Amino acid sequence: MLEIQNLVKVYPGAVAALQGVSLRVPLGMFGLLGPNGSGKSTLMRILAGLLEPTSGRVVLDGVDIVAEPQRVWPQLGHLPQAFGFYPNLTGEEMLTHMLRLKGVAAPRGAPKLCAELLERVNLTAAAKRKVKTYSGGMRQRLGIAQAISGDPVLVIVDEPTAGLDPEERVRFYRLLAELAENRTILLSTHIVEDVAMLCPRFAVIRQGRLLATTTPGEAREALAGTMFEGEVARAELEELAATHLVTQAHLVEGRNRVRLHLPAGAAPPGFAAALPTLEDAYLVLTRSAGETAAALPIRAAS
Q1: What DSSP line would sit under 42-89, residue for residue?
Q2: CA–CA dist 165, 162 (Å, integer)
Q3: What's residue 288's pLDDT?
Q4: pLDDT at 235 over 50
Q5: HSE on the CB side for 229, CA within 13 Å?
Q6: How would residue 302 be classed by pLDDT, with cut points 50, 70 and 90?
Q7: Cα-based torsion angle of the residue sequence 109, 113, 116, 121 in order, rounded to the nearest 10 degrees
């Protein structure tokens, strides 16, 4: 069990990246969803023992990561948002190098362990290819191979699907879901689809504060009867957004389709009731957190 207790991080200039974050992360996949600049990466770096908080505790299976990071590093795996590779090394060489840097024990030899890890992430056929020839998805899978080396109990992945094409994203989803069967994986992302596909539970963070902890099903159900969709002329869209909470506005066959959150009152002419989506719930929470979070019946984060 990972427990985050009243975590605060203030950077020079009185920039508060985290403002009293408390969270319990159980075994399995858990999502941390928030917009860019919400404090997700700061939190991930603290959990990985790479950044010291201003105050607060992080406890993994009874050991305080903040006070004794060296004790928990062997139990941690980390795939940061920007993971550097040596492009002229092969995948096999790169992974071997990372295993040495991490000090991962290999009783049967490093080549054997490296081969097993590459097979686990479906990169055996590309082991002898230079990393510079890898696709974005292949590089992410190589990053996961080093993250799970040493069989960690906690794996932290930060924005792992950003920039991946749809096929690579689905392949990566399947890999993460498999890995989460016997360990805790904390997935930090701003992509709602990542959470919808992978996470039975997730938390929403904005401006360094946790707004809610919930499940995808609970988040959608909380908006039942409050979502409406209709077609809006381009000239009218700005005026509509000034008076209503627009969760989505996109083109369908060249026409503006708009989704509105209306917790009370009548829908504008031409709008009909619509089934809520997880993206609707996320945007209702994050776009007007101070005004709408209290009206949205999702369990508040503690």
Answers
A1: HHHHHHTTSS--SEEEEEETTEETTT-HHHHGGGEEEE-SS----TTS
A2: 9
A3: 57
A4: yes
A5: 13
A6: very low
A7: -160
